[in-house]
Amino acid sequence: MSDSPSGAKPAAAESRYRRLSPFWNQVLLGATVLSVALSIYQLFNLGRYTGYVPIDTQYFYILLTILLPLAFLLYPATAKAPRDRVPVYDLVLVALAIAVNVFYAFNARNIVDLGWEYAAPDHVIYVSYVMWALVLEATRRAGGTAIFAIVLVISLYPVFAGNAPGILEGHSLSIGDTAAFHALSSESILGIPMRAFANLVIGFLIFGVALQYTGGGKFFLNLAFSLLGHVRGGPAKVAIFASGLMGSMSGSVITNVLTTGVMSIPAMRRVGFARHYAGGVEACASTGGVLMPPIMGATAFVMATFLEVPYIDIAIAAVIPSVLYFFGLFMQIDAYAARNKLEGLPREELPSFAQTLKEGWYFVVVFALLIWMLVFLQREALAPYYATALLIAVNQLLPYHRWKWSDVVAFIGGVGRLFTELAAILAGIGLIVGALAVTGKVGSLAYDLVRLAGDSPLVLLAMGALTSFILGIGMTVTAAYIFLAITLAPALTNSGLEPMAVHLFMLYWGMLSFITPPVALGAYAASTLAESDPMRTGFEAMRLGSIIYFIPFFFVLNPALIMQGEWADILQVTVSALFGVVLLAAALQGYLFGVGDLKGSPALMWPIRALLFAAALMFATPGGGLIPFSNTQLSFVGAAALAAAVLLALLAKRNSAVKEAGR
After folding, report:
1. Looking at the structure, do residues 249 and 174 belong to the same domain, yes or no?
2. Which domain does 405 fall in, by range?
3. What is the CA angle 440-442-448, rounded to 5?
4. Model confidence pTM above 0.90
5. Is the same domain home to 125 and 226?
6. Residue 11 has pLDDT above 50, yes or no
7. How many domains would you assign to the chain?
8. Cβ burial, residue 81 (10 Å; 0-12/13-18/19+)
9. What is the mean pLDDT of the chain?
10. Which of 39, 138, 179, 452 could form a disulfide with 128 if both were Cys (CB 3.0 to 4.6 A apart)?
């Protein structure tokens, strides 16, 4: 997203865009307003008043008519392409994108009624070639070369599927039929990704940008500083609180880092946190924010569409895993601060809690309205529009962050850039969905993968984790999730695993690339603010966020952790997991509450930490299901390991005290 008036100026993100002239900037603003108006018209069913109700595919084509051309205006073709003007070849692409989608929108009913996706006239097939190429180029510009290459190869798969080796063999189509299916069917470019974008994501994107431009980032930071800034390791705990809330609403890891990190990282440095540690904390907090309900980024909305469940079901399922993640991060920071004797900031330098609430109470009210409409009214498609309207209205009535006309223009431009980027990428990802659907690989691949794994769900899960992580490096999280939701998810669910848990598993592992070297984009963004080594920051983020590597396995093994099952079971496994997280933090940071620093005896420190790590896994791992032990048995083993660790730690502490006394 664009920078906000209260946050950092993400210059690196802005440099991706072409500097538009006043005329083209007006085109961007007009197209943005038109796309928002179109979504409101469709989602609020205003057609019942005008007498014109477009079918879904017609709505999607009209939306692409508005947004797809913007990709060729906003993103230069290459690094050396002009950035201060729109070259002629881009104007040609703009004209083609408009013409092709207008043609399809005009013929939307013929496409459905006459079955053009499987038997298109020759002239429609020629237009489909153009549409295919335009979407690929828009994906390349908005998403980068890696995702373009993946989308290109897989979108061509139907052409050579019949000659593919082994389990990759599928039903072949001619190049013309493939192009027609991609452009005309409701399973490819207009498939699940575009459907989720048009029907669910748009409203939340508008809300996220409005939150930034009305000073939401500053409010959450000040609120966190007023509550936690003075406690042990306060600035790092502020990063967790502020980035968690802001990331939950913005849905963007990088934007979150650049918005909240500009204040939290210098504050952490001031009280004694190392540069790489401060950057790692912010990267982990910002990554976790995207996994935190009520707003979890575009992928969660695609997941709701995929599973054909209300979005609120996804948000509720993600509550306990996100709590475990942030609790683990909080406990590690507290242990690190205790071991290194890092205090908080002086109270007199911190913002007043009362004053912060006085100036930003409406953010809390808007947040409550959003949750109320999502949870109780279940109006997930409409809720963000009402929340955005209330937010902007109250913002204009109060003097603190009241917009001037220049702020309105910046807000609309920020929405337009975000719309364009996601529409281009999601249309490209749709090509992956379409290619696998038309070749019949969705069903057969699930069977082949189960056979390859030897009918072992645990082996399939390990395959899924590795594949999710690798795809998350080269693709967006949404692209990686969709690819696996088509190919791997059916195999896992056919093995008896809970569908919601399986899909969340792939989302979590796809997000791990943000904090895991060598890519670690979230850590890289944080390292620029912390002025630290990106790789070292990435490894620190990996250690701090280590619980996230285990949580997906936990809730797949026992869906009670995603609130599936009896309340007694949910409570038991949650409490046990929380205790396990405390022990994991102690093992990773070398500080056990009630005992203190574990460095008293170098010879015993690593055995103690290994025992604590084993105890943490025993308590956090839910028993039953695929695990051949009950919760009670696992807890008993965990308690034994914990007791041994505590005894060794006390022995090491006593030996250290004796040595100190003898000096």
Report:
1. no
2. 195-427
3. 100
4. no
5. no
6. no
7. 3
8. middle
9. 85
10. 179
